[in-house]
Amino acid sequence: MSSPLMVRSSKGQYEVTFVEHASERIAGLVAEGAQVVCDANVARIHADLIAGVPEDQLVLLEALEPNKTMDKAQWLMQTVSGRQLRRNQQLVAIGGGIVQDVTAFSASILYRGIDWTFVPTTLLAQADSCIGGKTSINLGDRKNLIGSFHPPAEVVVDLGFLESLSDDDIRSGIGEMMHYFLYADSPLAQALIDDHAAVLSDRKKLRPYIEESLTIKRVVIEEDEFDRGERNKFNYGHTFGHALEAVTRFAVNHGQAVTVGMDLANRLSTEHGMLDETEAGRLHQLLAVNLPKYDWASLDLDEYLSALGSDKKNVSANLTCILSRGPGKLFKHSLPLDASLRRSISEYFASIS
Ligand SMILES: NC(=O)c1ccc[n+]([C@@H]2O[C@H](COP(=O)([O-])OP(=O)(O)OC[C@H]3O[C@@H](n4cnc5c(N)ncnc54)[C@H](O)[C@@H]3O)[C@@H](O)[C@H]2O)c1
User: Fold this and answer.
1) Residue 312: is its pLDDT beyond 80?
2) Is 63 in the pocket of ligand 1 (CB under 6 A)?
3) Percent of the chain at pLDDT exceeding 70
4) CB of 134 closer than 6 A to ligand 1?
């Protein structure tokens, strides 16, 4: 993808461009009066990036899950509107998914909607969340319960940010990319696992994987922007993953929780006669490379099942999740939240201990 990736949305078309130095694009937007919302860690580590941004056009935000609140969004809107940001000027979010969510949500309602540009700095944000237009805010301890669809005006990807991420942050992004590759039965699923050690030590090697991930996601979000059909399949691994993030108090990061979630969904698919055992074994070999290190014996199974039951996409005593007949063959399914599911999940966690 040497030319920009164009994404169509109900609010217009936007571009994802790969650049050498995001600072140049940020300076251009600042000159037009944009307010920059920057992850405080990114501002510390990449100080040059915002060195030229005037103090009254800069807002720093700590990328902490408890900051994804209505209060924080209100504080942000008060700050930028107090600085006389106009309807035709933009917010620029620099950071990962947390800064993205707070900024994009605020942009979606401030003055009934203003433009925002995203400079994603985590692998997860570069390969996944930067397109699609979802904005999410937590409500109490319930994640992403409030939100809107408000795609960015532009996405500026600078791979240099990947250098300062921890290996676990990279593994998290790999988990999210794997779920797109398995959704689409992309040959890059096997390639990324073969390259697992190489991309951890040389992050520039991630570019073709990021491009493939965005290309797969683009096709689906253009067809089902508001998540009413095909886009649901991107919940593959997520229902089981979100519950894992919650019960481990985020000790297991998002993308590796999704890796566990896909592996568990595959196992349940096999148990229900939908996924061939040989194929399930092959997929397990792939996903095992990206599983998190965790003391699975310490996982409170009752709490895990209760977290599964409170997933916002759940509408009854059944668990709605995405199962697999194999790569490229995902489908929505409903499983009773019963003793049999409990046993299967318990056996799964014992098997990866
Ligand atoms: N809106 C969406 O479509 C969407 C999609 C997926 C996830 N999300 C949300 O995204 C959030 C997770 O986002 P994330 O995983 O991108 O990261 P994050 O925003 O949670 O940041 C993780 C950590 O990395 C740090 N960081 C960010 N960039 C860095 C860099 N270049 N170098 C060093 N440290 C850096 C942050 O300061 C933070 O400490 C969750 O809240 C999730 O719900 C949103």
Assistant:
1) no
2) yes
3) 98
4) yes
Is the domain defined by 5-164 classed in CATH 3.40.50.1970?
A: yes
Q: Is the CB of residue 39 below 6 angstroms from any atom belonging to ligand 1?
A: yes
d(CA 195, CA 39): 29
Q: Which tens digit of pLDDT belongs to each residue from 40-67?
A: 999 999 999 999 999 999 999 999 989 9
Q: Structural domain boundaries of the chain?
A: 5-164, 167-351
C-alpha 166 – ligand 1 centre gap (Å): 12
Q: How many other CB atoms sit within 10 Å of the CB of residue 166?
A: 9
pTM above 0.90, yes or no: yes
Name which CATH class applies to 167-351: mainly alpha
* Ligand 1 contact via 121 beta carbon (within 6 Å): yes
**For the CA of 65, the nearest atom of ligand 1:** 41
**d(Cα 176, Cα 164) in Å, to the nearest integer?**
19
The bridge status of strand 91-95 relative to strand 142-149 is unpaired
Give yes or no for residue 157 CB within 6 A of ligand 1.
no
